[in-house]
From TrEMBL:
Organism whose genome encodes this protein: Paenibacillus pinisoli
Official protein name in the record: UvrABC system protein A
CDD domains, sorted: ABC_UvrA_II
Localization per Swiss-Prot or TrEMBL: Cytoplasm
Gene: uvrA
SMART domains named among the record's database cross-references: AAA (SM00382)
Coiled coil: none
Lineage, uppermost ranks: Bacteria, Bacillati, Bacillota, Bacilli, Bacillales
Main location: cytoplasm
A single GO BP: nucleotide-excision repair
Any single GO CC term annotated in Swiss-Prot or TrEMBL for this entry: cytoplasm
Amino acid sequence: MKTFIEVRGARQNNLKNIDVNIPRDKLTVITGVSGSGKSSLAFDVIYGEGQRRFLDSLSTYAKSRMSQVKKPEVDFVFGLSPVIAIEQKKGILNPRSTVGTMTDIYDFLRLLFASAGEASCPLCDHPIPVRSSLQMIEHIQKLPEGTELEVLAPVYKLYGETYETTFDEIRAKGFRTLHIDGVRTNLTDHVELEEETDCRIDIVVDKVIVKPDIYKVLTKTIENSLSLVGEGFIRFEIVSVPDGAVFDKEKFYRQFACPEHHLTMGELQPHYFSFNDSDSACRTCGGLGTFMRAEARFLVRDRNKSLLAGAIEPKLLSTGTKGTWIWGLVKSMAKHYGFDLTVPLDDMPEPVQEMLFYGTKGEKFPFIPDESSGKSQHRHAGKLMTFAGFVHIINWWYKLFLKRQGSQGEADFYKKVMIEHTCPDCEGKKLRPQRLCVRVGGTDIHQMSVMPLSELKLFLEHLTFSDTKANVGGQITKEILTRLDLLLDIGLHYLSLGRRSDTISGGEAQRIRLSTQISSGLMGMLYVLDEPSIGLHARDSGRMINTLKKLRDLGNTIIVVEHDIDTILSADHIIEIGPGPGREGGGLIAEGKAEQLAASPESVTGAFLSGARMIGVPAERRPLTGKVIQIRGARANNLQRVDVDIPLGVLACITGVSGSGKSTLVNEVMCKQLFSIFHDARIKPGEHDSLTGHEHLTGIITIDQSPIGRSTRSNPATYVGLFDRIRELYAEAAAAAGSRLSKNDFSFNQKNGGRCENCQGEGIVVTQLQFMPDVEAICPVCKGTRFTDEVLEIKLKDKHIAEVLDMSIEEAVVFFEGQTYVQHKLKVLHQLGLGYLRLGQSSTTLSGGEAQRIKLAYELGKLKRGSHNLYVLDEPTTGLHHSDIQKLVDCLQQLVDAGHSVLVIEHHLDLIKVADYVIDMGPDGGSNGGQVVAAGTPEEVAGAERSLTGKFLAKLLAPQERSGAAQAGLLIH
């Protein structure tokens, strides 16, 4: 049996024909500077070849139905196992995906509720039994023969709709007879109910007489009651019993239904608790938990104009269509309540404005058509009407839009005038209210979903079941607890099953996927991971390392692409790729144990392991300016009414363990509030009392790790804005050479210009094959240059534009010497450690860290005097080697020196220790976090007893560097 994975002749991307042996059943770390070729070796070569061979083993039919993997540029790879890649990707963007659905724990939870759930009456909360159809029929057949009973099913009015809408739905299902508050009603007659009142409605599904051959009829009736209507509840109401029959009505309902309302629950199924099932999801939000609602302020075009002059959104009240039904209602209201439509909206009395936007709230007024009204409106003259209000009209239109899936133009309109709120019907619980009448241990499924995982584990451990349900309930609970233990071991105790996947970080998503792999219990596998330490506090990195070792000890081979020193020191084998980035990298620099790398003079990582190189602490820190962003009463997510002052004019760090509330405070509360002030009032920030200090800022700029472009045509040169100037230079050279080529002809995006139309400026031609990978071939016309021969004849310093796009940023700095604008932009990119990237490199090939640094370079390249922006970065050290972190620090300091403020959410201690001010959140994650436990200079935080960050920070700061203030104690907010 092979003891190594042998890679021979790896030439993928910038790898330089390297040979490497990776020990099997060991934890191997591949490290090196950013852009050195680590991911090319781990993912493109090893994972790519393993995946390709697996797909090759499938049938042609199977291969034709899945995307194929291209063969990597490598001579051969021996000793491969079935391979699984756990990459550093942002959480799933589908708003329906949650931590529970990602880990399959929610599916087990649904199974638990379906198997061991106890129901209660939706009207009075009295416990009621769950019965199968057979059990119901057997109980009914105990009634005296000839007993007449009605089978009824409760129905519920749709939120925000009229009773008539509910009646229309009932008619559509083929039912006509109802009980409304106990009164028998026929829907063939006109039924009018007060919309504000809450009526109890039961459909009469069938009327049956008890007799020996009733089984088939009653089975069909019960199925209709439970599936078509009733929301899983059914009611049997005895109408009459035969004369002389001995019958105890109370005994019939005892232990069979709610003693007061006579409701019984049908047999439960797992899908009954799925918010992704249309029959179980909240009917208002469709199981999302959020709903778009109109805002009055966004419906106003100009408050200084009158309604007749166009104060309101034209889609509602267009000045050119004054004969519409809405205009008729508004004019009738104006005549009845005595307000003037020619008065500016701002000058109208407050009650009138309230009525226009939110309606008459049931109060009626006569409809009075005028000369602009159509014939249909005149037919309603004198009829008493109510007005829903502009806000409710938009909400109603939006519901219709969702039902018929309207055009993109309509969608854009609703985005403009509506804001996402918690669903007013289910209050964010995603399920229909009747589903929450089923509980396990007195707790419904939503309550379990919002518990932190650590709390959920304790709850399930102490859960007891009745004798009849103990066996099945115990088995399901055991499965859930096994999976919860894995998530807790990996440091995700603060998450909840209901947490949306699009709100978790890439590191959290990667650790969740890692836990699911461990739960599989497979051995002999090959796992390839991309920086699993990302997003982890120093306290939690040990948990991650232990998890990797546990996976290894099961008999698996673990390959980790990583920069984290603790992970490198814990590895069984280390491989360093380098020595530099891009074309300077791709070589095998050093391999072996940590001690061997530390002793290697060529190893950049080894220099940091041995202490020969390190990121130094500044000799002095900037003094505070006195200007702050003051946040008071922040209580979004787990924040516990946080009061905090974020200093401006300095480099500040927000720190804390995972789940302590850092991202909530910065991104959800501060950033969204500032964005709503500076950019878009429709943005809804997290709950807080107040935010002041924004007057000190010109704007807010967030620099995240999202791609700089989703098109293959997007590249660093176009993003930072220097490609336009390069094209101008070539256009000037063309004019000097007597050519008629313009600036547009030097773009590969312009049709009918200078680009090659055979490949449409892509440089490659893709041939799609049915059950084989797509074949990419260099365009035979332009030979991969992307431009026509005429364009390529124009040269600057003997280089045509395709050769310039193929240059590295480092080479381009020298090439464009003398071109101040272009060289300035290039130098900023080079300064950030991106000199290895090509100017025309597709944005789809860039990592999240590279994209973030390009965005930072864009901001650094356009600094203006006199402005004061707040730059917010979320873990900018992601994907950075220690040698590159120093370059990042220098650039952040440059932003502050230019008169701006920088706020960084960070775990990396080397960046935290160089900050001017640190705010540490905690003391722990989840419900035990959400507080500011320390604030001050890094030295002051290092001396704080409650600060977990401080304990690790103290190890990096030499005692003589700590201030007397830190030794004396720390001001804790």
